[in-house]
Amino acid sequence: SRVIETHEINKTYKMGSEIIQALKSVSITVDRGEYVAFMGPSGSGKSTLMNIIGCLDSPTSGTYILAGKDVSDMSENELAEIRNKEIGFVFQTFNLLPRASCLDNVALPLVYAGFSKAEREEKAFRALENVGLGERTKHRPNELSGGQRQRVAIARALVNNPSIILADEPTGNLDSKTSHDIMELFHELHAKGNTIIMVTHEDDIAHYAHRVIRLRDGLVETDKINPNPTRGV
Ligand code: ADP
Ligand code: ADP
């Protein structure tokens, strides 16, 4: 089934008297369980598109349907609600709370979802186990390696069982070996049925995805199935 459907999405920014067309009539669909990489040069519209897909921003015109709901004209509050329910975010800079334990970092999205403390801790522990960090629940982010921090962030993205994981340059701050370890984890998560959309400018990272969409100047330049994605070892 379809999890994302954009119909002729436009996004314009006003800079004084100048109008910047960041997205030009972008129509894409993503099915549940797909693993997609967005590529494209700086300024091509990747962040703008990810922000719209992640319900952090709305298109200027066009329609965006997320998990069957038209979110194009939703208010900030409605967007926040659907974002917490449907989207798990992974960032280049991890965005973890430095003073909170791994368990508390991972449990944070569940606070807004209204689970009890015991339920939050149980779910957060499961999510940490799921990324191989079941033994690190009490550690703080600065007591972990970069790869482990990104795993904590991935556990946080997964904890609410979202419809999609949106990863913006997830390996951008990691060395090559650690980057491939994280892609290994994405491979496993995809194999378990998760839907993943990531932005990367690295070809060898994009090659793990099963479909690669290239943007240029706010347009979809190519949208190709990767016939031979890099596999986990
Ligand atoms: P943003 O999300 O801030 O709009 P991008 O998604 O374009 O920026 O890029 C994220 C990071 O990757 C930035 O630090 C940018 O400098 C870097 N970057 C983007 N494209 C390239 C590229 N082709 N080669 C090297 N670094 C890049
Ligand atoms: P990418 O992520 O591929 O680097 P962006 O989506 O960040 O591309 O940017 C697409 C275009 O929109 C660029 O020309 C950029 O300068 C412009 N842009 C992005 N965000 C804003 C903003 N908040 N205000 C004005 N222009 C913006």
Over the alpha carbons, how many angstroms does the gyration radius reach?
Answer: 18 Å
Q: Classify the helix fraction into a percent range.
A: 25-40%
Oligomer: single chain
Q: How is the main sheet built? A: 6 strands, mixed
Beta-strand content bin: 25-35%
Total DSSP helices: 7
Mean pLDDT: 96
Computed structural class: alpha/beta
Strand order of the largest sheet: 6-7-8-3-9-10
The strand count comes to 10
Overall body shape: globular
Helix-strand sequence: EEEHEEHEHHHEHEHEE
Contiguous low-pLDDT stretches (5 residues minimum) are none
Bound molecules: adenosine-5'-diphosphate
End-to-end distance, in Å?
29 Å
Keywords: ATP-binding, Nucleotide-binding, Transport
InterPro entries: AAA+_ATPase, ABC_transporter-like_ATP-bd, ABC_transporter-like_CS, ABC_transpr_LolD-like, MacB-like_ATP-bd, P-loop_NTPase
GO molecular function: ATP binding
Organism: Algoriphagus aestuariicola
